[in-house]
Structure prediction request, 294 residues.
Amino acid sequence: MRVSTVITALLFSLLHRTAQCLKPNDEINVTYIMDKSEFYNFTNTPDAYTIVKFYTTWCSHCKTLKPIFEELASSFSHENKAGGKPQVNFIEVNCEVFGNSLCSSLPGFPIIHVIKPKVGSDAEIDVADNDVVPETVQPESLWNRILHKVWKPKADKHNFVEPERIVEFAGKRDGPTIRRFIETIVAKTLEEETINTVLDPSSGCASENDLCMLGKSYISELETSGALSHTDNKYETDVSTLSKERTKLQNMQRNLDLGSEDEEMKQKVKNIRFLSQVLNHLEDATVCHTKDEL
Prediction:
């Protein structure tokens, strides 16, 4: 990239951020990233999902996406303020500024990533304490160092994002499609966290998490019947037992009207599908444990 292009992009970035800073806080729904540390502050925040738009100023599709992305951010911002749902933050990265670092592996533009929050031990990772720095961390360019000095971002010890937390959007770039994608990722992640809690004998459920309590009750029934046991904070069973339990759930589901609009019926279907996922996770753990023994 020519130096003049980088300078132009840098000046554009500074003007964009300055204009953003002049807006009232409740009108800022998309954060314009000015520094890599700021990027990692967002993407490594526990309990918050980060929606990242990577773009360039010369990309026509990026210009088309801009108002759609901002409208989405606004709608999620209202939901964030209302509470009751996971925090969803929207940020945008100008790849003319961060082309050699944050954008180096991207195939084209625009690109949207949904980055899932750090949870558990992941939140304690400190690259500064490691001997090997991940390949995703690139040396700062001269212009990024200047940018860092100008804006003085707060220090952040987390300077990479685990690949397993990144989900790339590949659908039609319209508001409803992107929203469904985000909501699906959030729902699946929450389900995964709930199942992990269910299958951890030492963990309890939040009082408002009905699915978690349902799962714990189901696990307790399996233990009482002798189909399941637990040692060392993990449950143990065998594949044949799981197969029998899965058949029972499938028979229960056959007796339900899957197309019913009745809320009670829909909840029953949801519950059975959740318990089936619990069995899937139990089976995966059992197969892995068997392979380890072999």
Summary: The first helix runs from residue 3 to 21. Residues 204-293 form one domain. The longest strand covers residues 48-55. The chain has two domains: 3-194, 204-293.
